[in-house]
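INTERNAL TRANSFER SHEET
From: sequence group
To: structure group
Subject: Peptidase M20

Please process the attached sequence and return the structure record in the designated field. Keep the field labels unchanged so the import script can parse them.
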Amino acid sequence: MKFLAFLSFLFLALPAVAQTGLSAEERQIVQTVDAERERTIGLLERMVNQNSGSLNLAGVEAVGKMVRSELEPLGFDVQWVDMRETGRAGHIVATHKGDGQGKRVLLIGHLDTVFEPDSSFQAFTRKGDRAVGPGIGDDKGGVAIIVAALRAMDKAGTLGEADIKVVLTGDEERTGSPIEVARRDLIEAGRWADVALEFENLARDDAGVEYGTVARRSSTGWTLTTHGRTGHSSGIFREGAGYGAIYEMARILDAFRRELPEPNLTYNVGVMAGGTPASIDEQGFRVTASGKTNIIPETAIARGDLRSLTREQDARVRAKMKAIVAQHLPETSAELEFADHGYPPMEPAEGNRAILAKLNAVNRDLGLPEMPEYDPARRGAADSSFVAADVDVLAGLGVVGGKAHAEGEWVDLESLARQAKRAAILMTRYAGEKR
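Return from structure group:
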């Protein structure tokens, strides 16, 4: 019995022992996050219940006002950057001036979701520690974590000395145009910062292992248009008639499939049509075609995306794609155009790994498992990529959840507190480091 009692004592004492590496201020952060758990969930619920599809400009601005009301009492100078010239609502840029001595930290998230007002998926629902709602993980859960972390720092007295900038874009899911304007303020914030933390969904596998994201692949679009000499189908393949636009399209796409594969590279074909005639709308989302079986097709159009891990890989693969396109079948031609906007890669830099190492020191002090690097081929693009050329970045510091971009999107509410503690202590330690 004495032995069992001793084991029980050890079990109860483990959390305290595991957290002995925390300072008094950091222990106060932990206590505040736990005490404000329901407050944080309440903020998340209010944000989720306000539709903020990227094209719902009023809704995005309304969520921005909710965030403003949270940040201003913490001493942030909160600016709404209007982006209607790009066809989108705008961004929150909030700045907290500290003592100017510590590392300057940029926090990145977004206000918009993929669910527009005409979606049937509109409301927050909760069952125990699981909640469902549009954009609840991507990225309103991340925004709630940012607020919870900053509030905990404020209560612990570590926010006052911290130089922090928060940028919450209003068009992450459907970026405005021109992209140079749409991402201007985020890029400027990246040049200001010493460290950037991005609060998209946390990566966790089926075994419950949580990961740090030190790299993300790029995302850009391409349009392939092929042309053939139209005429009666009885003449196809003959000299003077050639192969037609659809065979030329098939040749190119199959060559992409066979010749391009390499690690961390994908190239999806999202939509395609061919015939006499074929066309694509101005937005590049809808293709139409008509034709008869006895007519050689005149035009074919395909649109897709390209995702790469480094700028070198991106440039090399683009060149290879263009070389494949140039090898025309008889009596055909083709043009490959890459979009002049898109997400650059967030390359796996050593500086990014250094942030993860620092976060893992926080994990050890919190009694949490260390987080390994996540496979970048399993992540999509995000706004952190726009600052990665100028500052070290750690991404994926948001909530644990699933079904992002789909009805039934959900989060594990327990992860809100865990992530807020990690972020707040990490920021506190950076604020204490001399620049």
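Handover comment: Confidence is low (pLDDT under 50) at residues 1-17. The chain has two domains: 21-216+346-431, 219-343.
Transfer complete.
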